[in-house]
Give the backbone structure.
Amino acid sequence: MDMRRLLFSQVVFTVLVAGAAFAQAPEGSNKLTPAAVADSLAVLKQLDSALRAHPRDAATWYRRGMVAWALSERDRAQPPIPGLDWTLLGHMADTSLRIAADIDANNGQYRMMAGRYLLGSGVSITRAASYGLFANALERARKNPDPHVHAETAVEVGRLHWRRYEDYAYRFIFGDCPFAGAGTADLRGSIANPDSRNVRDAVRRDIQICKQWILNDNTEYMGEADYLEAEAYFREAFEAQPTFERAYRQLAMLLVDRYRWRELEIVARTRINAVPWDAWAWLTLGLSVHRQRGDVHLVTAAFDSGFRLLKPEDARRLDHLERVLRPRDTLRTLALDSVTHRLGEEGYWKGADPLWAREGNEPRTEFLARVTYAELRWTAEEMNVHGADTDRGDVHIRYGPPDLIVTTKQPLDPFYVITWVYEVGLVFRFDAMLTFATAFLPADDQLSYGEIQGIGPARWDNIREFDIDSMPSQFARFRAAADSVDLFIAARAPVAKINDGADLAGGVRADFWVLANGITTIVHDTSKLVGEGTRTYQKRIPAGAYTYRVEASAEGGHVAARAAAVVRAMIDTVTGFATRGFGMSDVVLASTATSRGPVRRWNDLDLQPILGTAIRKGTIALVWENYELGNTGGAAKYLVAVTVEKQRSLAGKIAAQVIGRVGSAVGVDRQGDRVTSHFERNLAYAPVLVDNVDLALGDTPPGTYKVTVAVSDHVTGRTTSRTMILTITDK
């Protein structure tokens, strides 16, 4: 065994033996008060006295074992209570429960609880001793009229086979795989560049190589016999007592492992008819229908019902935003008050929804489905392990189901390695120890995992049934009356592409929203798009923080487009925009900006906005408003400087400069990769002055440029500026 595995085994042994809490001990054991502990110790003395008088009383031995078990677990919990010794109490529980099972050999309950105690010990040899007790208990329970004991013991025997199956699941009998045993990694930095087709193609090819071994060799996954045995026992338990939640959850766990969604849906509906208050019946119904791409309304209602029926502490543990945030963001959100935290969650899920025009919120629903799956699939009650809180649960909730799972193991090694691979280029490796049904990211992979979370804390693009293009857009803010702001937005939808990807001939629909604080809708307009072209929107909004979104989609379509941005219609410390005092609006980039009469405000111009791209040798218009300049003798005097600075382009000099209609001679300064055109303005004073300036691009080479408009007030000496990004193309 290498040093890493030796260290890992020591850590696991320490956690499981020195710190294990026995999940199936008497309920509430870890919360016993000092008074309850004192009463329990007194009960133990009474039971000892009774056993001295009647040493063959199995019921008394059983009760002694359960009380000692409860006290042993309480001694492991906080805050500590003097007078307890979990090692001595644990030995007493073990001995007492085994004696009870031996005396009353026909009592399945006694044997089952003795087996559970051994199973929760965290020591492989002791755990193995529980297997015979469970099998023996089931034989007796089948003859017992108590259906609950029958169901409980059948579950435990099923769990025995399930743990064996876990050791072999997704291990190939023949063949090899490029990812087998690989460490946790973001292959080729693909999560930082999720649109890299080369990365996806390379990883997809290697995944197919792995899967091809199974097809070529006509082999199955190992552990199939134990999987089928586990299913038989879980079904036996469920049929013995259909209202027994644990039996249902074990059967559901087995079905989700193989993605048997239709079967799970049938079982869930049957369960709901019998026990409509069972939270997990509703949650598994939502999961199964969602994975089958079923009715969105049914899925939403099922998850809502399931989380309402859960215990409040379980609902809070499972459904919280921190599960998909960066670690550093988690620390910040946990410090928020409850109202701010709730609003933050609503804003996150609203922003994550790829298309608001479609019913439902796919990322939110997918998150609930992943949480449900993780809690079902990797919960190990005997080890007090909650599936959603395991390493595999965390990865699954953040990144979804992997595209490939490979399990590898060396002969005589008590460890095996589970490798998850995603087509996007993510690889996660988990170490596991035989018979424990749990797995962990190894210590030397934790740093890599933290880096992956920091770059991409969660992914939702693997759930889409359609492609979403980025829609080119621009927005500008102009002051309006009474601390309100006129918002001007322009966007261009790929109408032909959306129509080509539509199954129905209903045309392309455009939707426009403005949300206050990213949550509350204050504007929603819907219209039909006919032909290509730029669509503009103008809305007056009160001062505040907003988000806008423009979408273009088609009914039954597989292609959509979207543009969105955060808008601060208030003091914006980043750009310098403000709703009062000296300042300027944002700058609109337009192909033309014309008028038929006096221009007093920006909307007196007929603007044909461009969306970040202009053609070489062409001319563009820059339009903005100046606010509350200084007044000297009824005149406003200020300097305008328009700077074009190279960011990324082909070789060549910047030829762009301001031309015409500026009222004074234009000076031009050329400094390396930057050209500044500047001119003086001397106008009759008004609280608002509109500037409309033409910028000739000339032979400026294609590329990306930063365009900055700066205004310097000669009267007050104050300055302000705005910066835009412009791409110049050959055509």
In short: The first helix runs from residue 3 to 18.
